[in-house]
Write a structure and sequence with these properties.
Blueprint: E1 11-14, H1 22-35, E2 44-49, H2 55-68, E3 72-78, H3 81-90, E4 95-99, E5 108-114, H4 123-133, E6 150-152, H5 156-165, E7 178-182, H6 191-198, E8 202-206, H7 225-234, E9 238-242, E10 249-252, E11 258-259, H8 261-274, E12 282-286, H9 291-299, E13 303-307, H10 311-321, E14 326-327, E15 333-334, H11 344-358, H12 362-365, E16 374-380, H13 390-403, E17 408-413, E18 419-425, H14 429-447
Parallel strand pairs: 2-3, 2-4, 3-6, 7-8, 7-9, 12-13, 12-14
Antiparallel strand pairs: 1-5, 4-5, 9-10, 10-11, 14-15, 16-18, 17-18
Helix pairs in contact: 1-2, 1-4, 5-6, 8-11, 13-14
Length: about 450
């Protein structure tokens, strides 16, 4: 079976427009409920969300779908995606649901599903759910006496905060660190500042006033300028920017200079090598990670295993290869000694523990390698992809020849938006800009 509804990170779209309607959310709950109702025990599902207005529409719709299939629903309210994954395992639930469009603005929303082990579902399971969404499920509905029940978990935030705090190495505290935390007006707006403060940090929290409309709006990991300025203004030791569901993170040093996911993975990998904790002989990253990271790891005797874009594919490769550090340049950092998915707050704590134990400022710890010039451009498209047009193919072949062995070219369709993403990197910045512009022009002409 193939998937058309599910993308690289669940289902995503414009709120109250198919597929992100209450009707489809109901059907997703029913379909997932049917698949994960296994055995004679009382089945349960954990549902979390971020702070988007449309979450109030999708949450009860999904709950109704699960209840109709005889599953008890535990609603945890605004909660980071990794918190939902953790609670799914902790509460011995059969399935977990996160209602979020991650780093997108409020008008979008999405549905991410986790199995009882806290890991995102496989492509095959998502395809099975998608097949059932369009099927007649009336014969699978529970009898009136077997309907599920719904309740709210009052201590969900406290459980997640304690879980996060316990990942910090023994004996390490954040006392004396001044930290700016940008929560993107999203799911971590309460738990992230609380966890940092309880660990001893002086916390300057920004973007912690969600309205339902302001999630990721000029804040968070996709718009880090406010966090960087706050670091400089307050003389902070570090800045942390999460996205709307807090599964990704970017960090700024004490000068407000940004460290992306590649640098963060390098910091953690190097620290874990020193403490004999790194597994797999290297790390896992996607095709988007900078070539400079790969060169740095190779010179350190470590390997970089690349996957297609999407943290779920990083996690799958980590599990198969026995790795415990992986992630994406965008800031999804997976440390599967602790978490089954990207956790921005846990990754930030690992970086802070390196600072505390080294006694050095972030600017001296955070630049593990010099990135090769890299440029990414997005081209909007509607309808069929024009990548097979002759002009586009000629521009791509020309770019590959000009970049040669010292650069990389990557062209892919976004899994979450109607965009073609074009990335090139190499030692000559003017060259990569020229080849990308040529490809963009060819795609725009073909799509016109």
């Amino acid at each position: 079976m193939t998937r058309t509804l599910f993308g690289t990170d669940g289902i995503r779209g414009l709120a109250n427009v198919e597929p992100m309607t209450a009707e489809t959310a109901l059907r997703v709950g029913m379909a997932a409920g049917k698949i994960f109702t296994r055995g004679n025990h009382r089945h349960r599902v954990v549902i979390g969300k971020d702070t988007r207005l449309s979450g109030y529409m999708l949450e009860p719709a999904m709950a109704a779908g699960f209840i109709a299939m005889g599953m008890d629903v535990i609603m945890v309210g605004p909660m980071p995606t990794p918190g939902v994954a953790m609670l799914t395992r902790s509460l011995r639930a059969d399935i977990g649901v996160m209602i979020s469009a991650s780093h997108n603005l409020f008008h979008d929303n999405g549905i991410k599903l986790f199995g009882p082990d806290g890991y995102k579902l496989s492509d095959d399971t998502e395809a099975e759910i998608e097949h059932l969404i369009g099927a007649d499920l009336s014969g699978a509905l529970s009898a009136p006496s077997d309907l599920g029940q719904a309740r709210r978990l009052d201590d969900a935030e406290g459980r997640y905060v304690e879980f996060v705090k316990n990942t910090l190495p023994k004996g390490v505290r954040l006392d004396g660190l001044k930290v700016v935390i940008d929560c993107a007006h999203g799911a971590a707006y309460k738990v992230a500042p609380s966890a940092l403060w309880e660990l001893g940090a002086e916390v300057i929290a920004i973007a912690v006033e969600p309205t339902g409309f302001n999630i990721n709006d000029n804040c968070g990991s996709t718009h880090t300028q406010g966090m960087q300025e706050a670091v400089r203004e307050h003389g902070a030791d570090l800045g942390i920017a999460l996205d709307g569901d807090a599964d990704r993170v970017l960090v700024a040093d004490e000068h407000g200079e940004l460290l992306d996911g590649d640098q963060l993975m390098a910091i953690i990998a190097e620290a874990w090598v020193r403490s004999d904790r790194l597994k797999g002989g290297g790390i896992v990253a996607t095709v988007m990670s900078n070539l400079g990271l790969e060169i740095y790891l190779r010179e350190s005797g470590l390997k970089l295993v690349r996957t297609q874009v999407g943290d779920r594919y990083v996690v799958e490769t980590m599990r198969r290869g026995g790795f415990n550090v992986g992630g994406e340049q965008s800031g999804h950092i997976i440390l599967n000694d602790y978490s089954t998915t990207g956790d921005g707050l846990i990754a930030a704590l690992e970086v802070m523990s390196v600072l505390v134990r080294s006694g050095k400022p972030a600017s001296s710890v955070g630049r593990m390698f010099t990135p090769l010039p890299q440029l990414l451009k997005n081209v909007p498209f509607v309808g069929n992809l024009p990548l097979k047009e002759s002009d586009v193919q000629c521009a791509v072949r020309d770019a590959e020849v000009r970049l040669g062995d010292t650069g990389r070219l990557l062209i892919r369709e976004s899994g979450t938006e109607s965009l073609i993403r074009i990335m090139a990197e190499g030692r000559d910045e003017s060259l990569i800009e020229d080849v990308i512009n040529n490809i963009v022009d060819a795609i725009e002409r073909a799509a016109a």
